[in-house]
Amino acid sequence: MTEAAKVIEIDKLSLVFPTSDGDVQALQDIDLTINQGDFVSFIGPSGCGKTTLLRVIANLEQATAGSIEVNGMSPEEARLARAYGYVFQAASLYPWRTIASNIALPLEIMGLKGDAIRARVEKNLELVDLAGFGKKYPWQLSGGMQQRASIARALAVEPDLLLMDEPFGALDEIVRDHLNEQLLKLWAKTNKTVVFVTHSIPEAVFLSSHIVVMSPRPGRIHEIIESNLPAERDLSIRETPEFLQLAHRVRDGLRAGHSYDEVV
Ligand SMILES: Nc1ncnc2c1ncn2[C@@H]1O[C@H](COP(=O)(O)OP(=O)(O)OP(=O)(O)O)[C@@H](O)[C@H]1O
Prior knowledge:
- By secondary structure, the protein is an alpha/beta fold.
- The chain folds into two domains: 1-83 and 168-263, Rossmann fold; 93-158, no CATH class.
- It has eight helices and nine strands.
- The protein has helices at 50-57, 75-80, 99-110, 114-127, 143-156, 173-190, 201-207, 241-257; strands at residues 6-19, 22-35, 39-43, 65-70, 84-87, 161-165, 193-198, 210-215, 220-226.
- The chain has a six-stranded mixed beta sheet with strand order 5-6-7-3-8-9, with helices on both faces. It has a three-stranded antiparallel beta sheet with strand order 2-1-4.
- The longest helix is centred in the last third of the chain and has 18 residues, at 173-190.
- The relative contact order is 0.18.
- The model has no long low-confidence stretch (mean pLDDT 91).
- The structure holds adenosine-5'-triphosphate.
- Adenosine-5'-triphosphate is lined by residues 17, 19, 24, 26, 44, 46-52, 199, 219.
- Keywords: ATP-binding, Hydrolase, Nucleotide-binding, Transport.
- Belongs to the ABC transporter superfamily.
- Its EC number is 3.6.3.-.
């Protein structure tokens, strides 16, 4: 079997934020390798550094020690090469642009023109099940549809790597379930590498091939759990003993990672 290509390689990475109250050690000694086609979730209590770690990968924050490579490049080079798409917690679409022209925006910035843009917009609207909604404005769509549109925008630049910071955190459970299923189908269809921040144990277990359990003060990786669930899953898998066992392992890891019970 050939070895999967390394997409992200992080070695002894630390990050300190200097603040007026003193230094905040947001990340300490992070070692992590993510391979092509992995679906990796970061889970942990508030403040354990999940978002900061994702932002370091995206070159939105700088590590203070250690090293990180994205597709064999520095995060800055990877950003300039548009190696990833980034999906924020809120859909962050421009309200004065239609859904189609929101998705077109990064393509315009890339220098694509007319038909090439239209074709990519259509293709990605279809991928997230929003074909026919391109002419609508964001406020005419539900929260879940807006979030799908922002995923389509991230996918439109055709990155192999998708960075997602709690993209479904603000949505109700039913919509979230539906989007979890759609995201998993998309992942299976496109063989992308996904790095996904979440507070939800069921979401992490349902989606991931690898679950990175983090602990706070300072933010560290407590444990990396590899999923033994089949790659093809639907929501019914959540009733199986294998799923519940994995969820228990994640919960135990979260408990062991800090000294008090905190809702995550
Ligand atoms: N720009 C900043 N300046 C100073 N401290 C920061 C900054 N950004 C984050 N921090 C601190 O770094 C730590 C990690 O924050 P981060 O947002 O990465 O955690 P998180 O696990 O994503 O939390 P949440 O689940 O609440 O989003 C926290 O203690 C936070 O207060």
